Amino acid sequence: MTPTSGPDDRLAPALRTEALEQLLTERGLIDPAAMDAIIATYETRVGPLNGAKVVARAWTDPLYKSRLLQDGTAAIAELGFTGPQGEHIVVVENTPTTHNVVVCTLCSCYPWPVLGLPPSWYKDPAYRSRVVREPRAVLSEMGLDLADDVRITVRDSTSEVRWLVLPERPAGTEHLTEEELVPLVTRDAMVGVAKVTAP
Questions:
Q1: Which contiguous run of DSSP H or E holds residue 75?
Q2: What's the rounded Cα separation, in Å, for the pair 153 and 196?
Q3: What is the pTM for the complete model shown?
Q4: Strand, coil or helix: what is 177?
Q5: What are phi and psi of 165, to 5 degrees?
Q6: 81-123 pLDDT, tens per residue?
Q7: Residues forming the active site
Q8: CB neighbours (10 Å) of residue 48?
């Protein structure tokens, strides 16, 4: 490790993580193979890609969409996405006149099976308190400007219920298949702080 020259000169997080992993491995406290398996889980089996598959299916299959909005947990499980922090997921739909945004005002409750781990801004006290009081301003600061006649509903995730936003399907994507729609769907759109845009 390279020594730092002052309190404001910090090693990049990736280098610190690598150094910590090496130290813990040398002391026999972690197994690198187990760490790789955990990382692979959150990169490929748990995370926003799962949620994007749920959204794309709902956009292309009206019957699935109906089931998803009626019982999010069961419909999501149909696609094989279950697990801790996903025991009770409610899905709400964004429309041209209604916009939902998700927050956890107490901590960072989040639907891990479909969105992975929460981003740092989701856990930030400023987001957690401000989005409840002034959602339109917070969304604008995050790059999402909504018309004044769009009603914003803030959904508070808890340990009992976690929320997933079904974003509006963007115009001009009617010809795209479910598989082609998946890469368009972002984590931020499924939290409600962004919209999905056409390619």
A1: helix 72-78
A2: 18
A3: 0.80
A4: coil
A5: -90, 130
A6: 998 888 999 999 999 999 999 999 998 899 989 998 899 999 9
A7: 104, 107-109
A8: 20
